[in-house]
Amino acid sequence: MAVLPRVVFFIAVVIFHFSEAQNEFAKLPESYRKGVRLAEKQVNSHNGVQYHFLFFKSLKQSSIEAGFNVNYFYHHFYLKATKCSRGTENADSKTCVFRNDRPVIDCAMCYKTFNGEILMEPKPYIHCIYKPALTQVMESSRLEHCNSMSFSSGTMTLLASTGSD
């Protein structure tokens, strides 16, 4: 009998974490969700990936409004493996349960939008790597690359803008 309350508690915690991750994604502004979907597509297309990865947590966001419906975005977030296999169609955290036995993938991306759509020129910068393998040099390189994207248009840097953490 002592096992039943533990099982119920475990199930409640698992359900809470899944709904929390889904709510995190839903809370993102649409421009950031589009970027996350692009990163998910890239990560899930790699041959070495066995499980489907989904958005887990946002770490930092910033944006610059450059005028004429042009915006630059920087987003740092985690993707997490699910129990669904790679290539699962229409996957979300309700149908694909997160795995807790794999490290998260740390992603940083920057991209330019026009009228709310991600432009392919300049090519969106997406850098995703398993968290344990991420180095300080890689983090610095990410920031330099994203700042150079916004400098080329004559705007202030993404990291100098006021964004939410």
TrEMBL record:
Presence of keyword Chaperone: no
InterPro entries linked: Chemerin (IPR029562), Cystatin_sf (IPR046350)
Compartments it resides in: Secreted
Keywords: Chemotaxis, Differentiation, Disulfide bond, Inflammatory response, Secreted, Signal
GO molecular function, one term: signaling receptor binding
Superkingdom of origin organism: Eukaryota
Signal peptide positions (record): 1-21
Broad class of the protein's primary localization: secreted
Coiled-coil intervals: none
GO BP: cell differentiation; chemotaxis; inflammatory response; regulation of lipid catabolic process
Matching SUPFAM superfamilies: Cystatin/monellin
Any one cellular-component term (Gene Ontology): extracellular region
Matches recorded under PANTHER family: RETINOIC ACID RECEPTOR RESPONDER PROTEIN 2
Name of the protein: Retinoic acid receptor responder protein 2
Species annotation: Ictalurus punctatus
